[in-house]
Structures are given as C-alpha cells and as structure tokens.
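ugh ok fine here u go
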Amino acid sequence: MKLNIVTEKESQRWSLLYDAENLVEWMPGAVVADKPDPTADVNMFVNYALYEPVDTVTTAMFTHLEHEGSLVDTFLDVAEAVDWCFAMCQKTLWQLPPEKSSILTVWPSQQFYRSHLNIGVCGRDYKSGRKRMDWVDELRAIPGVLVITTDGKIPWLDMPGYYDSLDYLVVISENEGGPKPVVEALARGVPVIAPDVGYCWDFPVLRYRTKDGLLDIVRRLAVPRDAWAATAQHVMETHRELAG
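structure:
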C-alpha cells in the first residue's frame, strides 16, 4: 500500500513534521510530502488544516478544536470530508464523528530517550512490613526502569546527591508520619509519586491509590523505545481496511 503523509514543509520543521517522520520509519511504503499524491492509495494529512480534496482515500490527524476563528469551521469540515479521523487525544476524539475516528498516540523522537528511568525508593525493610519493600521487585520488572533504593545505607549528608540522580521518588509505605524524603526530594526539584500516606498529599505529588495504580503510572513514564511501532501499526491497519 502506498501511503502519502502530507505535512509541513521541510523548511518549517514543526513538531508535526517530526511526528510524520517517526510514523514513516515504522511503515513500509509510506512517504512524507508537502502536497497530496493522486497516485497514492491513501493521503494522510498531518494535520487537518493541510487537507486538500484528492481522489484517493483520505485521513487526517486532528490536534485540537479551536474556541473561535476560521479553524473551527476547517476542523468540522475536514472531519466530515475525510474517510477517517485520527485524534491526538481523548478530548479531541469526543469532538469527531465516532463512527470514523480513533486515537493516534504521538511519542517522543528517539533523541529524547535515555537508557532507563531512575526511580528512587527510600527506606529499608521493617519487620512490620509497613514499608512494603516487596513492591520494589515489581517496579524493577518494568522494562526501562532502574530502581535505586537507599536501604538505610546512604549517609544523610550524601542524600542531596542521591535525589539529584533520580527522575522520580516513589513512596510505597502504607503508614508514615511524613515521610521526610517527600519534602527533601521536592526541595531538590525531583517529582514524587505517592499514596495518601502521612503528609504526602499535602504537597504537589503524582497520586496513586493502589499498587496497580502505581505500576501503571511508572509504565506510562517509562515510554518504550518502540512505542511508535504500535501507533504505526494502528495507522497502517486502519488504512488497509479503508483502501480495501
């Protein structure tokens, strides 16, 4: 199948051009261009404002619906004209025809990835089990995640350096008076993921309620390097069905 992705010109180098190029890497037979190709099986417009009528299957990516101005009519008109609408997010999906719309998730380009995500867990195992250190193994099992624990062995004066090595601090205790690492990490500019324990929710933290909720948050933060593959597969399968 020949897929022509119509996006911004090379000279403009907008974010959407990078998104189109990331898609093409995972889609054999797809090319990026700045105008429609009448010989293609499908012309996909990234984004909708670039749409032009062409005698092929047409799809478009929809970023957001403006509150006012000419782009409001363009958004609605293109949504009606194309054969399929790819929404950039759930809120945009709600504004598109439900019978011919789906979400197209965009991911970082490869240059933004690091080898792993550094997650910190402070504390050591207590006999009472209130620190729930058994959760650490499940966090470590998530691909792309490195969990760095203190195990009560890092000297207090060295803790600022420990926090600086983290991307996120995770609180996994079921009962705490604080814990103090919450305010220490925030003071170092390190975001915290925490349950409703101690004073955690008195501060701006990423909240979770259950272990599954925590694991889901960390999985979402540790974006896999091949995430574009799943997005590209959805795009290709949709286009194959539309093109027959």
